[in-house]
Amino acid sequence: MSYLKERFKKNSVQIIRHRNSFIPQLEAKDEPLIYVSKHFKRYLIADYEINKITVIDPYMTVVDLQRLSMLFGGDAKNNLEVITKFEAYKREEVNKQTTIETIVTGKERLVSNGLFNQIAIFHSNKAMHDRYFIFWKGDVIHSIFSIGGSLNQDFGGFIHIQEISDTYLQDSVVHYYQMLKESLEGEY
Q1: Which helix (H) or strand (E) holds 179?
Q2: Is residue 50's pLDDT more than 90?
Q3: What is the pTM of this model?
């Protein structure tokens, strides 16, 4: 290994701390979804006051609801709010209405089994591309994460997870969230 690489590696160990921003596939090559699930379970346990998680992802499928229960389920006090466009149905399910009906059945099961207090799935008509996880304490946003790809990718393909610490970007995401909430076509 060259001198510069060794020096960089030594300095990066001293400077960089693993927090809430990482590329799951680099952390756990074989099972990035399980790694992310454990990360967010620890995150929720460490701050018990978090009681709501908002997921913004344009590509919501039936399987994604199971992925969300892996990531955030298990505590009956938590509410899950999903804002989506149901765009993935064209690839994975028979049709959009069947997809929505199956997701509604799945969400009811997750709530009745105590994995969440409540699950609200909203359909938005606004343009959506980026994905976010927003963690709430009551009515106040506690933290926002940017997700580099869709849930159906299981955090493979070197997708990033980044906690947003820049206040200007946080404000922009909050504004985007409010725009989405104002343009909802329905709750499922």
Answers
A1: helix 167-182
A2: yes
A3: 0.85
